[in-house]
Structure formats: structure tokens, C-alpha cells
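Example 404, ligand pyridoxal-5'-phosphate.
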Amino acid sequence: MFNVQDIRKDFPILSRKVNGKPLVYFDNAATSQTPKQVIDAIADYYSNYNANIHRGVHTLSQEATDLYEQSREKIRAHFNAQFTHEIIFTSGTTHGINLVANGFSALLKKDDEIIVSALEHHSNIVPWQMLCDCTGAILKVIPMNEEGELLMDEFDKLLSENTKLVFVNHISNALGTINPIEYIIEKAHAVGAAVLIDGAQSCPHIKPDVQKLDVDFYVASAHKMCGPTGVGMLYGKEEWLKKLPPYQGGGEMIAEVTFEKTTYADLPHKFEAGTPNICGGIVFGTAIDYMNQIGFDAIANYENELLQYATKKLLEIEGLKIYGTSKHKTSVISFNLDGIHPYDVGTILDKMGIAVRTGHHCAQPIMDFYKIPGTVRASFAFYNTKEEIDALVEGVKKAKMMLS
Ligand SMILES: *Cc1c(COP(=O)(O)O)cnc(C)c1O
């Protein structure tokens, strides 16, 4: 049974005070909080297993290697990849996207086309612009509507034999829109294009099945799903990972090195040069276990309840506008108060112990679409409560009174 008060006991930080008030943490789309199960696993690793992996004959190194590889297998099972070697450890979503973009620079030619969406995070725009600059490929953008939804008939029109890659986030971090990635993947495959899905914002809320989606690449960050920062994963279909050249040279990614020629290691090590974030990789598995034990269905149901409750309460405030009103969205609310800068609202909320994000949320093109400098973004996780939402609503009312 889902019991939020029990769950909250797993998160030590939720009982601290900020500016003399109990912390209300509504910046989950930027990073999630860490349960004690993960914190304990970090301490356990450094207390008992710390060693470099894949190279030592000594016991510690072998134990650390086993834990690291067991975690890779756990991640494979979670995402339902066919093979464990299709899971590459990265430092996070940004790293995964850059790894793929860099690989495609060897596969693209002038006038090939890459399609991205109007809802992308900067980390999913800039690498493609860089890729286009160095290959002569052309970047096309799927437009969006007022609700913050991508226009699928416009997407259909952008597709052609020239389309080589399509990059879309599963869920928008700025607005919370869940994008129709099943449709996008199917249509892109019909013209022979590969698809990379940015799952940074979806993995905290749902459990993607990469085989069922038939997606070519899928990336995520541990720190948005109860894990530590600095570690993430790239899933790639075996055939694609074999085709892509390595991203970085170094130790660990080679089979044989002479000054005449180097041969690369097999997957996944071909993409894992240098000493990785070993502890992070191991406890990424712990974080996934933790979330699965609560259950993604229970998480989605509860978060949807929070979303509906907060949407209703916030809209009762006169002059408050919510950006991103798709029926298909997760627990993110981006909003503004008429005539008041989002930063000022955020500052007053912080005084009351309420952590929200303000600004463009690394998605400047979305803000340009709405002709606003940014929004206040409250993003909820399964450990938040309706009482916390009441505190937010009171805080916003107070901010409105003080600032208008
Ligand atoms: C957070 C986020 C990223 C970047 O993730 P990092 O962990 O900072 O690499 C990319 N895309 C989306 C949709 C995000 O929410």
C-alpha cells in the first residue's frame, strides 16, 4: 500500500527546515531527493568495496566489478533491453546525447536532416546544432501549440528520405507534456531514420520498455530518479552501438593498443573510457530498486492526484496562468502571475521554505513561443503531499499581495 507518510521517512532531507520553515521541495524536475536506502548504499560502497573495476585481480576490485555489472543488469531489466551490453553507463543524460551526436558525425553527410522538437531541453538542441555545423546536415523543428503539445501533422510533413535522426524528449521538463513517442518512433522508422528519446524527465514517473517502444536510443539521469548526480545511462540497440564510433579514447575502451593501430573493446566498454563513477553506477541500481519497490503505477497515480489538486487550487488564484495544459502531462506546473516576474515569486516562496524553479528551465525556445521571460515551475514527486501544495498556494497568494 502506498503511504506517503511512511515514504517521507525514507528521505532525511524532507525533515529539515529552510528559512525557519519546514522544507517544501517542489524542484523535483531539476533533481530528486535521495532516500536513505541510496545514501546507505553509498556509505556501504566506500566503507567496504571501494576499488577500481575491470582490471584488478584482487578481491576488492572483483567485488566492486561484480556490483557494478550487477547494477548494469538491473538497469537492463528495468528498461527491458534485450542485452546487458546495450546499457552504457554515462555521467548523465547530457553525456548520453553527446555520445550519440558525436557518433553520428561519422555517419551523416551534407543535406541529411535531423528533426528535433520545439519542447527540447538545451542539452537536446545544442549537440544537434554542433552536429549540423560539422556535417552540413539540416536541423528541422517539430512545432508546438498553445497547450504545449507537439503538432504531429507538422511532424509528418517534415519526414522524408533525407531524415536520418529524430530526437524528442519523452516528457518536457518545462511543461510536463508527455509526447506521443510511440507515433514518432513508428513514423521515423518508416522513412529509415533512427530515434533517440530523452527520458530524463520520464524515468522518475514511468517505466519505459525500450523493446516495446522499438526505440534506437534512450537516455536518462540517475539524479532525477532518486539516485546520485553524475551518473546516467544510455540504451542503444546493439546494431546501432556497433555502428557508432567510440566517443572518447582512453583506458578501459580498448582491446589492444600499439602505436600503429588500436582495436576497440567490445560493447559496452567501447563507450566507457576511463574510470567511471563506480559508486554512482552501483547505487543507480539501488535507486531503481527503491522506486520499483514503491511501484511505478502507484507513483503515477499518486502524482496525478497531486497534479490535479494543485492545478485546481492554483487556478483559483486570479491572474495566475498555467503554461502547458495538455491532457497528457506529468506532475509539473509552470505558471506566472499576471505582471509579476517569476524570479520575484520564487524568491518570496524560498523565504517560506518552498523550493521551486524559476527561469527558462533550459528550454528558452518554449519561453520565446509564449513570449515570456520564464515561469515559476513547481514539479511534484511521489513523496510530496497535498498539505505542501496548500503551503505553495498560500505562498503564491502572499507573493501576489506583496508584489502587486
Ligand atoms: C534534466 C534534463 C536533461 C539534462 O540532464 P543532466 O542530468 O543534466 O545531464 C536533459 N533533458 C531533460 C528533459 C531534462 O529534464
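Summary: The longest strand covers residues 163-169.
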